[in-house]
Structure formats: structure tokens, C-alpha cells
Amino acid sequence: MSTMQTPNGFTLDKSGQRVVVDPVTRIEGHMRCEVNVDDDNIIRNAVSTGTMWRGLEVILKGRDPRDAWAFTQRICGVCTGTHALTSVRCVEDALGIEIPDNANSIRNIMQLCLQVHDHLVHFYHLHALDWVNPITALKADPKATSELQMAVAPKHAKSSPGYFRDIQNRLLKFVESGQLGPFKNGYWTNPAYLLPPEANLMAVTHYLEALDFQAHIMKIRTVYGGKDPHPNWLVGGVPCSINVNDTGAVGAVNMERLNFVNSVIDQTIEFIDNVYIPDLLAIGQFYKGWLYGGGLANQSVLSYGDIPENASDYSPENLMMPRGAIINGKLEEVHEVDLRDPNQIQEFVPHSWYSYADESKGLHPWDGVTEPNYELGPATKGSRTHIEELDESGKYSWIKAPRWKGHAMEVGPLARYIIGYAMGREDYTEQIQLVLKTLDVPVDALFSTLGRTAARALEAQWAAHKMKYFQDKLIANVKAGDSNTANVTMWDPKTWPSEVKGVGFTEAPRGALAHWIKIKDAKIDLYQCVVPTTWNGSPRDNEGNIGAFEASLLNTKVARAEEPVEILRTIHSFDPCLACSTHVMSEDGRELAKVKVR
Amino acid sequence: MGEPRALILGIGNLLWADEGFGVRAVECLHRQYAFPDGVRLMDGGTQGIYLVEHIRATDILVVFDAVDYGLTPGRMKLVEGDEVPKFLGAKKMSLHQTGFQEVLAMAEMMGDYPAHLLLIGVQPVELEDFGGSLRPAVKDQIEPAIRHALSYLQGLGIHAVKRPRPLGDHVGISTAETGLRSYENQRPSEQEACRHGDARFMPDEAR
Q1: How far is B27 from chain A (nearest CA, A)?
Q2: So what's the ipTM on this one?
Q3: Domains plus CATH for chain A?
Q4: Domains (ranges, CATH) in chain B?
Q5: Residue A549: HSE in the Cβ half-sphere, 13 Å Cα cutoff
Q6: Using 50, 70 and 90 to split pLDDT, how confident is the model at A371?
Q7: Option in B14, B109, B186 nearest A181 (CB)
Q8: What is the CA radius of gyration of chain B?
Q9: At A325, which helix (H) or strand (E)?
Q10: B206 in contact with chain A, both atoms CB, cutoff 8 A
């Protein structure tokens, strides 16, 4: 029998033609997907695998816990700051260190800044090309493009026909020179692209504007983090002093710098309100009939929550980004999540290239074991070094399978928005309703690839406004005479107990992120990271439940099996970051996607 | 226009043995030499799109990196101008390289490409060694690599001044916590921590 039912309710059928996409990410990391399509080109089985091993946990063993953040922020080229923040939080949790209010505000601003930046760059520079065809933009009428923009984004100033003509000429020069750069390797004749030339030209223009603007956003991080592009972090607070009365203090953040941050935040809000959100809605109008890719979104979603209003209080009531778990599609019941409970978050490895003493059981990260075991299933085609086709009945990924109380969960912006919506949070509900109303789609439309892309845009908007909130709070507090940014009373390891453990979490742009640490005699005894892409990209578990990537691909119709733009579209909507979730070298980091149809 | 602007950039992941060459080279250069205003030294790590603005804002770009040229391990090779992007994407190597090639393309698309570009690459000896440092053959190339960078910059009118005393290990251009000495000295033992990758990337004898 080639058909199989998973405990979490999906039907898998691997009888059809097998399509292999490797790698599927544009820039970060290495991931491979194999799907079986039936005679109608509909995906009936999906296998996602992380093809590298990163070894971070073992690099940290025995090191000073106060240094761990600097190592974790080297895991990857994108979410540096969120790993660093998670790391200092886990050490503070272990040692019972409370941070000052200003440090909380600054950390929140930096985390929100990362959210905004990451979502913007994801939409325009990683994901847009799954929806937007830059080649047909060359055929657009600049005047009609100008009219389109004035209709969908009336508040954006750059909209004259001459402006669009200039961009078109620049694009033409680029294309004619034969070096397509970021636009190479696209499937530009594929019928899955639905935008008219004018919408494509508008989107490509904003691609360039966003590329320019994103650099500006990151200056916020440089003001508070000092070093660029790897900001500084500190266990106990932030390594940045504030002095509003002095303009000359070396290294201190003065009023001039604070005002500069204010202005960048205002411009960011403007760009998102006037360009990003209108683009999302404009592109959404053309694709709202393409509602594939929901996967686990309408059944099981998880968020740890983030952005504490008050310092050092990680209870759900104090977190502005919601914490909770929804299972089996019951939106009316949002479960509390406890990262310390050994029975809640567990990682399984029966289908991962690791070994446990008993693989029928999962392990909580504090009891985590990372013992590599590269062993292939009996039906694998190819060799150990050149796999042609994986055997998903055996071990098939470098990603472990984390589960919440046994459930495979989706994490990320869409999960956060579904949980916020289910909790009835006003800010989340208002934003969602505006999108549903504008696109004239029912709430179920959220549970899709497009929903994930929309949630990311809404969250960028939300985060930009919250950045302003914490910036105002910081300035008010400093003006009231509190310039404290760090608690160093526990800096000296002599003040630490001999054995402690802790957990730190954040909501990274891609989803729930946590680090678990055990400290023994002032050294790291154990360090485990469970990252968002581990959740979303997980292989099957001991019971055969499939993870979010695999579930999201099922039942999608592909226009051309040899040009799997639909697969890329859905996987990219999660913004997978395999540098963190798996463990180093790719066999081939050069090609965008190598597709094999078998 | 005043003095030409220059960016000296080290890229790579310092957690993976010789992948750290670029970052270590620029750190070492910074400790030994001071530069005039308008010259920036940067540890680019594995950053991608964040680096675009810095590339756009320079006239001269010097990049230190571990590059797979298919040469004898430890060999250094210099590539200039238009040839640079080709080499950055030439072979399988690491996460950041596809990214950096794209970074250069994005800078070009924005119409700001450095007028002068030099890639100082060293063929790595070892990459699959998590938490490892530079191998001696690669580490020995740091000083020659720095001399090449200095003479290239000198040819373009930029003169570095040797510091009377080099800066300490903890005065990096990047985070002090990952400074070379403590990075090497605090490393866990091999018994404690597995250092290797999987079979596809591991030489047989290491298994």
C-alpha cells in the first residue's frame, strides 16, 4: 500500500512521480524537499530534510556562560540579535538576574527592529520573487504603473511615470548585460506568476527602494548595540550607557542619538504603512484564489511570546507578543506553555540523524542529547554521499523533531497572529480584519501560504509601532533620572551557585526560539537550542506525525513539476533558516535549486 | 570629493576552523595598523544583506576570505576587479558565499559598485571542525595577506601606520568574547564535544 494516514490527519501517497528540490532556500542554509505528485500534478507526499549539521551545542560546552551570546550570534547571518538575546536571557534565568527597565526597553527596541527588518527583507528580497516576475516588468507601461501605485499606495511619494521609466531602464540595462544577479535562476515563463506587468514593475521598484531603506532601519541597532554588524550584548542588561545631558561622552547614547532613533522609527512606520502593507494587499488581490499551503496552521500552532512590558517578567500577561498553544484546530482554547515542564517540549529522533538510547521517547532540551548517527533507510536511492532519493521510513534529516505534548506545531508570524486572534487581542484582531475586509476573503483564508506572508507584514507594522512605544518609554525614564542600563551585581562567577539551569526564549522573526542551559562550576555544562526552523522543518516523529513544511506542501497543485515555483513559494513563506535549525557544509551552495524529476 | 573611501572586510564563520580566515585576518590587521579617516575595517562574519550598504558606501573594497580555488591547502590567491564575484561563487564552500556574491550584485544593481576591488583568498585546509581554529598553514598566511592588502591600498594612496604596540586580543573590531586567544584556549576537548560533520562531508579516515 502506498497510501498512509498520519496521526495528525494527513493522507500521504508516494506512488506518483518524485520531484526533488535541493536546495530550496535562496540565501540562508541548506534544505532539500522531495515530493510525490500524482497524475494531475498534485502533491500527495512531502519530505523535507535539513542537509547540514551545525554543531553549536558542542562548541559551547565548557565555555564561560557570559560569552555564549557572542557564539550563538555567529550561528547564522540573519537572526544574530535574536540568538544573542535568547542566550543572555537563559543565563539570567539560570542565575536569577533581574535587568533594569532601560535595558528591557532597549532590548525590546532591538528585537522589534530585527522583526521589522527581517520581515521587510524577507518580503522584498527573498519571497517577492515567488510572486513577482521582474522580467515582465520590462513590458509595463510606466504611466499605467504610476496610476496603479496612486490607486493602491496613494501616500507614497515616488510615483511619477518618469520615475518608473527610469527604474525600467535600469532594470533593462541589468538584464541586457546578461547578469541577472538576484533575478537569475527564476522560472520566469511559468504560468504560476499572475501579476500584470505594471504590478510587477511597481513591486520591483519597491524591491530597490526597500533595499535602500533596510540599511537605514538597522542603524537603530548600531546606536544601542555599538558594533556593526555584530552588536554587543550583556548578561544583566545592555552594554550601552545613556547620558542625556552630555553631548561629548565617548560611547554614551546622548539626546542627539536618541532623537536620531526617533526619526528612523518614524520613517520606518511610514515605509511600512505606505509601501509594504499596500504592496502586500495589491499582490494579495491577484493571488487570493491561491490559498494552498496552510498545513498545520489551522490545527496546531505555538508561540512562546516576547516583548515583556516590564523588565524580567516573562509571565504571559506581561508579554506583548502572545504566548500559547492551539491544538487540533480548537481556536477557542489557548493552552499555557511551560518551557521548563519536561513533558511539554520534547525532541524526537527516530527520523533524524542522531541516536538516543530509547528512540521511542522524546527528550526535553535540558536532558537533550546530540549524538550524530548518519544512517539511511533501506529504500534510499543513490549512495551515502550522493543521495538521489531519501527513504522517509528511516532517518532522513539533520533536524530533530520537536513536539509540544506530542503535537507537531507551526511557529512563526502566522502562529503568533492566530494565537493573538484566538485570544481576542484587539491589536491583532483589528489588523487581521482589515486585511480580510480589503481582500474580501473569509477568516479561513488566513490558514495558507498567503496568510503567512500577510501575517509577516502585519507583524512588521505592529513591531514598528511598538518600537516607538518603547523608545518613548526609554526617553521618559531617562529624563526622569534613571539612566541605569545594567545589573552587574552577579557578574562575578564567585557569586554563582555551583549548579544551576535556565531557559531563555524570544519570538524570532521566523518563530519561537529558546535556549536551555546548565551551568556547572561557572562553565557551560549543557547548551541546547530549539530554533523556529526545527519546529517548522521537522521530520516525522515516533508516531509518524509530519511537521509544518511537509504538511503545508500536501495537496498543492504544481503547474509544471520541473519548475516547482509553488513548492518554493510555500516553503519560503516560512522564511526557513537552515543555518540555525540544522547542523555545516552543503554539498552545493551555489545553485539556487536543482530540480530532479523521477 | 575628498580622500577615497575604503572598506577592508573579513568574511566567514569563525566557528568552523579555516572558515574563520577572513575575520581573523582583518582583526589582526586592526591590531597592528592604524588607518586614516575614510578607511573602515569590518568583521562581516556571515552577514548577507546587511553588508550591501557598506559596499555601496566605499570606493575601494578589500575582502579577506577563505576561498575554495581548488589549490593546495594553505595557498593564497589574489583576484581583482570583475573577476572577484566569479571566485566568490566558484565552488561549494560555505553559507556566506552565495550570499556575498549576491551582496555584490545588489550593490551593483543599486548603481554603487566599488571602483577598486581585491579579494585576498586562502585555500582552506580544514572546515569540518566545529569550534576549531585556523590550521597552521592558513594562520601562516595572515601576515602575507596583510602585506598584500597594505601594498594594494598604498598603490591607491592609502597609507596605514604601524601601531607602536599592537592592540590586545580583547580589543577587536568585533566582539571581545570571540577573540582568537580565548576562542582557542577555552575550547572543549574532543572527548567532550564531537567536532565533525556527517559522512557526506567527512573524510573516511575521520570516522
Answers
A1: 14
A2: 0.84
A3: 13-129+214-377+395-584 (1.10.645.10)
A4: 6-206 (3.40.50.1450)
A5: 33
A6: confident
A7: B109
A8: 17
A9: strand A324-326
A10: no
